[in-house]
Amino acid sequence: MKLMYQKIKFGIVFMSILSFFVVSCNNTVDSEQYVNKIGTVDLPNLSNDINSKNSIEADRVDMNKVTLIKPVKADLPKNINVTLPDFGKYTDVQEKKRAFFNFMRPIIQSENQKVLIERGKVLGLLEKVNAGEKLTEDNILYLKKLVKSYRVKGVEDVTSKKAFLKLLLHIDEVPVELGLAQCANESAWGTSYFAKKGNNMFGQWCFTGGCGIVPRGRAKGATHEVAVFDDVAHSVKVYIKNLNSHPAYQLLRTTRYKMRAAKARPTGEAVAIGLQKYSGIGMEYVETLRSMMRVNKDYMGLGDI
């Protein structure tokens, strides 16, 4: 069982995710316009407290090997299946890989798209501030809710450049190829006990009694359980929120932000550096994910990523 840092009560996490998606934000970017904001709005420079020596790996990204941002909305099916199929029935490895990625890909893309819509709204408000416009009370309330939901620290004035910087560090997509590799690794290609019994695709833990499944061999005195989710989409939603909010994954977010600031698409191989604390094996875990992305690239259905 991988070491997880998701220490928020499971129920609170779910409710907070639901709540900030339904908050209205007057005069901001709608769901069809967000793609026009992602790569066009100039991002604030990283402040010294964020751009620390701990994020030096982010400076090692070879910008000649990454893809410039092309704001294309994901072409998602209208009805996405979120019920875990029986992947144990496959005997052909290649067929199993394609089936697994074809199932998980639209779910990850859909949940990412919700996050990108939120990001587009924040970018729209940043444009207003840069233009000298005063934000409405509803705008300010919306930003405050995001600050709380994403566990953003050190923000007093939500209309400041520092606040926008920190929000935009947190509110962004997880590269699809990284999510695919990680869920394949953590769920044993959808066949693990916790995947089948709890729709848990990423090895997520919860810490409230009765919130999930007590794992066999849990250490004496430990209180964690393996979280149970309503469906696979719910698992993906909480996984993305965890990477976007927990302090353990600051390096992932910093690396991703630097690539955004350079008008490049954040890649799974680059931002995986920030997942050293997702597992007790540190860099070995990062290299495992990078290897899985390279080996399984042709099965993921993502084209030339």
How does this structure look, described?
The protein is mainly α. The longest helix has 38 residues, at 93-130. The protein has a three-stranded antiparallel β-sheet with strand order 1-3-2, with no helix packed on it. The protein has helices spanning 10-22, 93-130, 137-149, 161-170, 176-187, 193-198, 232-245, 250-261, 268-271, 283-295; strands at residues 205-206, 212-213, 225-227. The protein has ten helices and three strands, in the order ααααααβββαααα. It is globular and about 60 Å long. 44% of the residues lie in helices and 2% in strands.
The number of distinct β-strands equals 3
- SS content category: mainly alpha
User: What's the order of the H and E elements?
Assistant: HHHHHHEEEHHHH
Give the rounded overall mean pLDDT: 84
Beta content:
under 5%
* Residues in helices, as a percent range: 40-55%
- Unreliable runs, pLDDT <50, ≥5 residues? 1-29
Q: DSSP helix count? A: 10
Spatial arrangement of strands, main beta sheet? 1-3-2
Estimated radius of gyration: 19 Å
Task: Note the overall shape.
Answer: globular
Layout: helices, strands, pairs:
Elements: H1 10-22, H2 93-130, H3 137-149, H4 161-170, H5 176-187, H6 193-198, E1 205-206, E2 212-213, E3 225-227, H7 232-245, H8 250-261, H9 268-271, H10 283-295
Antiparallel strand pairs: 1-3, 2-3
Helix pairs in contact: 2-4, 2-5, 2-7, 5-10
Summarize the structure.
This protein is mostly helical. It has helices spanning 10-22, 93-130, 137-149, 161-170, 176-187, 193-198, 232-245, 250-261, 268-271, 283-295; strands at 205-206, 212-213, 225-227.
